[in-house]
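INTERNAL AUDIT FORM
Audit reference: QA-55
Scope: verify that the stored structure record matches its stored sequence.
Auditor: D.O.
Record contents follow.
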Amino acid sequence: QHIKGTVTDALTGDSLENVEVRVPEFNGNVLKPRLTDSFGRFHRLLPFGNHTLEFIAEGYQNHIINIADDEILNIELIPLEKHDVTFVIENYKNNFGTVRIKLTDPNGYMYIDSLSATPVTITLYAQEYSLLAFGESTIPYNLFKSITDSETININLDIKSPDEVNLIDANNWQ
């Protein structure tokens, strides 16, 4: 079964390069995901039968379709809205050292930046993120956040005490 087609931006009609084309039932060691070329083109050879195709690109809504036969597909991905999000460490102290922020979206795309006493503004897409703020001398700060508008996210960090460095979480003992 030969599946091919193009992927474009639903608003502009521009071809989209590096869109991941996944076949979930074969994802992993069987078939690796493929990426669209600079003209937005893709092709997949699949065993005959019904299959699901996922089209994934940073900044766009995922698109999922089911196919059964050889097909030529024209996929349009809908762009996500962008919002400016400002990150502030409310209780920043010089002895925090370098503090990093790692944001991971549902598809695994990551944004990493440094934080200090000065607020940092990052343009993010309207979707959910896992946020991790961490540093050598701070206790990691975790947050799951759905971005729906421009906003400020206030972070309060705590310094690790020497006793906390090697503590074991007794709640997870079995």
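Auditor finding: record pair retrieved intact. The first strand starts at residue 2 and ends at 9.
Action required: none
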